[in-house]
Amino acid sequence: MNAISRLSTAVSLAALMPLTALAGEVEVLHWWTSGGEKRAADTLQKLVEDQGHSWKDFAVAGGGGEAAMTVLKTRAVSGNPPAAAQIKGPDIQEWGELGLLADLNQVAEQNGWNELLPPQVIEVMQFGGDYVAVPVNVHRVNWLWINPEVFAKAGATPPTTLDEFFAAAEKLKAAGFMPLAHGGQPWQDSTVFEDLALAVLGPDDFHKAFVELDESVLTSAKMVEVFAALQKLRGYVDANAAGRDWNSATAMVMNGKAGMQIMGDWAKSEWSAAGKVAGSDYECLPFPGTQGSFAYNIDSLAMFKLSDADNRKAQEDLARTVLEPEFQQFFNQNKGSIPVRMDQDMSSFDACAQKSMVDFKAAAASGGLQPSLAHGMAASSYVQGAVFDVVTNFFNDPKADPQKAAQQLAAAIQAVQ
Ligand code: BGC
Description:
GO cellular component, one term: periplasmic space
Function: Part of a binding-protein-dependent transport system for a sugar.
Bound molecules: beta-D-glucopyranose
InterPro entries: Bact_solute-bd_prot1, SBP
Oligomer: single chain
CATH architecture of the largest domain: 3-Layer(aba) Sandwich
Pfam families: SBP_bac_1 (PF01547)
Shape: globular
CATH class of the largest domain: Alpha Beta
Keywords: Signal, Transport
């Protein structure tokens, strides 16, 4: 029985049981709207409904979540935020400062969150020492997805270094394939940029650049090299990339039109939803040159203060459910991520997830674990926006000067601090 059918059995059994007295409603804002993402989000909805509560889906389409955050701000300003919203990284602190987030300390204490979660994760989920958010998963951003059949047809070798990456791209191109499936949207451009930065700078300088915002690294010769690599890579992207959604790019690799995609492991949700098997139908490789490093992107649900007691109960049940092993398994197997509980049994996960968990733990011990800038984990949304602007302008101008871009990067970051 697979995770989904086990889940539907659990749900149909639940339908026979009396509903709890304290049934409430949870409205959940997220941007999990691709086919694969939706399957993952549905697992949470079912587990919440299973407890007698009703789920109000507040899904806002748009990869990377920019559109969802805009809508959330509008709702919050009008005094009507949802019960829970997918808010990540340092942004949680910004929402906490507004005084809008609910305290989850009791659920955390009763369910031993302090023992379950890595200390770096706990820090992000708390505001002023109180839990205000619950982590859902751990995504890895530095992945390269390849179609092995296309590689074989083109005589290309799965790359482990940037030089090998460009050599493979050249072979794919010569054989008539689209080398790299990419969607020209700012967050996707910066996802690629950040993977190149991790490869060229290494984890220490990556941290200095995007967490410490160190000007000397931002303007360094290595950063110029990152932009130069981005420019070279741009040459392997097709002319119709502008505005393409990330999951359409994944589909191009899946249907054999393209050879590779650089994307976080939510891309795997599309492969899984299509019934494809990791290790045979597709391969996940650490982005060339970043073996040993792990750019993490932790999805989390921050909870807003509610006045209705039943809805508050539903909100607490949602928070508790998210860290239970059952949800961690169902959700992450569909979402492409790994559980955020480090004690989770990984035996039923696929090869990519198992590798991701091993790499996460090794990177955490070696200093290779770094927060993703493109996915809102490294710096404020203002810094992230400044980087997006510089990177996307650079990406869209084939004649842009890498040297100038590094200067612009530092200046743009400086201006929003
Ligand atoms: C989120 C993922 C989501 C992806 C594509 C990322 O920023 O963390 O949960 O699947 O964007 O929308």
